[in-house]
Design a protein that fits this description.
356 residues, alpha/beta, six-stranded mixed beta sheet
């Protein structure tokens, strides 16, 4: 736990005395954030968890990537990837996203089906897609306000503000965009395309049910969203809202009229962050795949069967350590070699005389 505390202190001090040298100004940067879950227990309370919800608590995670890509005057990829035309994969994506929203869990998105993987393996990596050069990761149990400040410190330390191209990618959670407005408002805001797809797919099921017409309409709407034509999709959905009716003031969340209203609201609220054709021309990402991958890597260490961390210090410490261990700048190794007691660090004279 002491190491985790030292990492948090080093972060607040901009890693002075730990990470030497100035960070280069990257040409292109991507900042992304996402929530997670960790199980904690109260200390000194005897056997058991002693926390509601079986001990699950929310974590905040963020990734900072310097990358490179090519820009284009025309959309370099006007047709969506084949995986979004795979009914099984899309249904799995949608179900997992719905479960995550309802339970506030951090289950990983499903892997692509063998069919989608086979198709993808035959495709060359498009030059407009960003290629990672250097990444750093932070993770914490702090609230979104404090975590936003942590994110700003890390981005500033890496000179992200001076980059020529800057992108902020996240799902539609309001706290993500509050962080964006507060600390990253000069970045290009991008709603993760995968989350947009799940909302479009849900809408087709509400409007048509499970039938061929629903899938045909989904592929049409999804393709329009991919091309940045979200306004056309919203117009179509509003017509279907009129057809099935508007929800009354007192209505259950499961009512199709209410579910469709919420989907339309989601797309309207995020429309300015769904200019995917423009993002591809600018060589920016359209998904939060790097963030999703980082969350999985964090989960490998902090989540497991019957794995609990003391609340909150133990959980905060392990998150700090795990995130630091995944950073490309080896900040965990650097900190450990600067800590008193390390074989490469000379003890002070006062400590030596006391020990004697």
């Amino acid at each position: 736990m002491d190491v985790g505390t030292d990492l948090e202190a080093a972060s607040q001090a901009d890693w002075k005395g730990v990470i030497d040298g100035e960070s280069l100004v990257p040409g292109m940067v991507v900042v992304s954030c996402d929530g997670g879950r960790v199980r904690t227990r109260m200390t000194d309370c005897g056997p058991g968890v002693h926390l509601s919800g079986k001990g699950w608590n929310e974590t905040k995670n963020a990734i900072f990537v310097s990358a490179k890509s090519e820009t284009s005057d025309v959309d370099p990829e006007p047709i969506p990837p084949d995986c979004f035309f795979d009914p099984t994969h899309v249904a799995q994506l949608t179900e997992m996203a719905k479960t995550k929203e309802n339970s506030s869990s951090s289950e990983d998105l499903p892997e692509q089906s063998p069919k989608a993987k086979k198709i993808k393996s035959k495709r060359r990596q498009p030059k407009h897609k960003p290629k990672r050069i250097h990444r750093t990761i932070i993770s914490s149990m702090k609230n979104s306000t404090e975590f936003g400040q942590q994110m700003a410190r890390e981005a500033n330390r890496r000179n992200f503000g001076q980059a020529m191209r800057k992108a902020f990618v996240a799902d539609g959670l309001p706290c993500n965009w509050t962080i964006y407005e507060t600390h990253f408002s000069d970045y290009v805001p991008i709603l993760d395309f995968v989350h947009a797809v799940t909302y479009v797919y849900r809408a087709t099921l509400i409007c048509f049910g499970k039938c061929d017409e629903a899938w045909t309409t989904y592929t049409q709407w999804m393709t329009q969203v991919w091309k940045g034509q979200v306004g056309d999709v919203i117009s179509d959905l509003m017509q279907h809202q009129q057809r099935i009716g508007f929800p009354p003031e007192t209505v259950s969340d499961d009512d199709p009229r209410e579910r469709l209203r919420l989907i339309i609201g989601y797309l309207k609220n995020n429309q300015k962050r769904m200019k995917y054709n423009q993002y591809r021309c600018q060589g920016l990402p359209t998904t939060s795949a790097w963030m999703e991958s980082a969350v999985k890597e964090i989960n490998y260490r902090v989540k497991g069967t019957e794995m609990f961390w003391n609340h909150p210090d133990g959980a905060e410490a392990i998150l700090q350590i795990r995130a630091a261990s995944l950073c490309d700048d080896d900040r965990l190794v650097r900190l450990m070699t600067h800590r008193p007691g390390c074989a490469t660090v000379r003890r002070s004279a006062s400590n030596s005389s006391t020990a004697a």
